[in-house]
């Protein structure tokens, strides 16, 4: 019998310090392998393995595609690659982003649960929003153990709070207690008989992270089609439910939790408003030039028509500028959860909005 020898850890904002503290408390002879995902910008340079090597005795390095899994090592996901686990080896992929990230926590947790079942310990540390929640749910569904940093102890409480609210977590502990807990769990024997069967949905979602074309093009998509579009590619999002947890995934594999989808929609809305503001300013400037030119030629009626377009464009631009400066695209405007209304914008020439 083996112990809990597969430990997967996810962190985001504030995670470097948290991971270093965990590494500092681990013994050199830890009978387990650690796999770490920390959110980094895709084209950044990660020095996290060097930080973890200075912090504690367990050697850390960026994972290499296809390398074998060895106990007493820390495997760190490199920037812009998902870190996935297979039977006895690791796999790196440039698959679709999940929750807006690559690497993301959920694919690591999900593939670990798929390959190793009860032997897995999933750990969610400090971070914003909720990456890791769905992955931790997969760990629990396969009989693994869920550990979450106490939100009151976390630099950013979003990820730990989401995990606690949506997953039947086994341990909620301060950061200082996580390393001793993992050391103890790694030494506890695990009865692997009677593992919970792997669901077809979990298998398909794991294959999405690898851009498996046979799944993307031919297999029935997990979940039910929703009325929402993918913020990244524009495709239809399918709604997935695991207990009370609601998630979304598009045909090519981009995945979002409900909270992350709202955040991504807010980002897309802000970008659209900046584009609209730029177009209105340009329209006002052009219409002003045409008005001046018509007035200079003595065409007063034409000049007045262009002047009205100038006024309309500048008023619309003023409304959009006010929305952007007030930050109302980032938060619901009322308890109903509806985003701010732009009904004050006029439509020159009587043209309706694009959506009718």
Structure described in brief:
The protein is an alpha/beta fold. Helices cover 39% and strands 19% of the residues.
Element string (H = helix, E = strand)? EEHEHEEEEHEHEHEHEHHEEEEHH
CATH topology name of the largest domain: Rossmann fold
Strand percentage lies at 15-25%
User: Shape from CA axes?
Assistant: elongated
Radius of gyration: 25 Å
Helix content: 25-40%
Tell me what the CATH architecture of the largest domain is: 3-Layer(aba) Sandwich
Average of per-residue pLDDT values? 87
**How far is the N terminus from the C terminus?**
64 Å
Task: Give start-end ranges of low-pLDDT stretches.
Answer: 331-356
Strand order of the largest sheet: 4-5-3-2-8-9-10
CATH superfamily of the largest domain, by name, is Methylesterase CheB, C-terminal domain
Overview of the structural elements:
- This protein has 356 residues and is of the alpha/beta class.
- The protein folds into 3 domains: 2-190, Methylesterase CheB, C-terminal domain (Rossmann fold); 200-258, no CATH class; 260-350.
- Helix content is 39%, strand content 19%.
- The protein contains 10 helices and 15 strands.
- It has helices spanning 15-24, 48-55, 105-116, 133-141, 158-166, 178-187, 200-208, 213-217, 258-296, 300-326; strands at residues 2-3, 6-11, 33-38, 60-62, 73-76, 82-86, 89-93, 120-124, 145-149, 171-173, 189-190, 224-229, 236-242, 245-250, 255-257.
- The strands form 4 sheets. The chain has a 7-stranded parallel sheet, with helices on both faces.
- Helix 5 (158-166) links the parallel strand 9 and strand 10 (171-173).
- The chain is elongated and about 95 Å long.
- The N and C termini lie far apart (64 Å).
- The model is unreliable at 331-356 (pLDDT under 50).
